[in-house]
Amino acid sequence: MAKSTAKKQKKNKDENGSTRIKIGDNNRNTAVIVGDNNQLIQKNVEEKPLQVPPNDENEGLLISFGRWLMRSFFHGDMKHTLTPFTIVVGIIAAITGSLSFGPLILDPTYFVKNAYLELGLTLGFALSAFGGIGVVETSKRTTCPKCGQKFMYTRKERLKTGEGTHQGMEVTNYRSTYSCDHCGFTKKNVKEISHRPIPETYEDDEEE
Ligand SMILES: [Zn+2]
Predict the structure, then answer these.
(1) pLDDT tens digits, 90-108
(2) What's the CA-to-centroid distance between 149 and ligand 1, angstroms?
(3) What is the pLDDT of residue 146?
(4) How many whole angstroms from 146 Cα to the centroid of ligand 1?
(5) pTM for this model (two decimals)
(6) Staple 177 to which of 75, 134, 157, 202, CB 3.0 to 4.6 Å?
């Protein structure tokens, strides 16, 4: 009986006679009450990394499209150069772009008369121009360092390790795991930084 009481006291009180109380979720914060001074020292332990979706908004879509492109047009040769694709997309963008924006400059009423045609051409231009850039950029980023296949080396896991503001930008730090879907080459703990301008809307606006 006496032995167990002594043990219990030893657990709660250290050599200075201070008492430690675990507070908050997961007992991450420790409040130390030292002797008779009752001084409260709160130690903030670094936040636990947060698991977030591995892909940004369009990344998954661009990777799927890229793989389809390689299978359909380059006989599944995942190392094939994208130059022919870039040329074709460039031509489509040039044609749709000149057709959609050209007549507007010459005749401002053209848009009203041919709204659907105009819309179609503008969409065609936007898709070919921005989609084309997106696919080419994605192919560069997803080329496996080991086997060299495109659209294969992708992010599988992403941990948010930090967040803050720096020089007017919202900065987020990540630690990611990449691996190749073809040869299995894996790279862990890849440090990544994403930054974007701080949005000008304030949280108060949402409450209106
Ligand atoms: Zn590989």
Answers:
(1) 999 998 888 877 766 666 6
(2) 6
(3) 96
(4) 5
(5) 0.64
(6) 157
